[in-house]
Amino acid sequence: MSLTDFNAAGPADAAAAVRPCLDVDRWVNAIVDARPYPDLEAAVAVARSAADPFTDDELTIALSHHPRIGERASGATAEAGFSRAEQSGVSSDADVQRRLVEGNRAYEKRFGHVFLIRAAGRSSEEILAALEERLTNDAATEKSIMADQLRQIAVLRLQGVLG
């Protein structure tokens, strides 16, 4: 959807266009309600602002839509398509996959939720290094990093939808 079409769309259609970027009602509503935008940068600025901070409930909801890093999202939804594209650079090498499975398991045991990282533009080794480093974080530090990663993912997706 072009930015012009997004600006002209009804509220329900506009919300449906951006919801796959981040399924958090407050965030979606903030972006839809601030229309019209003169340019993509203005929409991105609202998206960043609305995503800072996230509540604990919003983080939980958002995480429920993200597969483990290294796992291919299934289905024909826009969210699944975003995830597959974002993780397309993750190697299918058996050793990388084993390390991701082990790292995901350790992360989930430590923090109680999936490891979230902006995978787009990162190599498997960069992702694995970040996973190993983040396993050393305390819960508050990790929550802050995770929220930032979620913001980055949402903004990249929004740029793709409206760009």
From TrEMBL:
The EC number(s) this enzyme carries: 4.1.1.97
An MF annotation (GO) of this entry: 2-oxo-4-hydroxy-4-carboxy-5-ureidoimidazoline decarboxylase activity
Start and end residues of each Oxo-4-hydroxy-4-carboxy-5-ureidoimidazoline decarboxylase domain: 7-159
Originating species: Mycobacterium aquaticum
Protein's recorded name: 2-oxo-4-hydroxy-4-carboxy-5-ureidoimidazoline decarboxylase
Transferase found in the keyword field: no
Keywords tagged on the record: Decarboxylase, Lyase, Purine metabolism
Highest taxon in the source lineage: Bacteria
InterPro entries with a match to the protein in the record: OHCU_decarboxylase (IPR018020), OHCU_decarboxylase-2 (IPR017595), OHCU_decarboxylase_sf (IPR036778)
Coiled-coil portions: none
An annotated GO BP: purine nucleobase metabolic process
Catalytic activity: 5-hydroxy-2-oxo-4-ureido-2,5-dihydro-1H-imidazole-5-carboxylate + H(+) = (S)-allantoin + CO2
Pathway: Purine metabolism; urate degradation; (S)-allantoin from urate: step 3/3
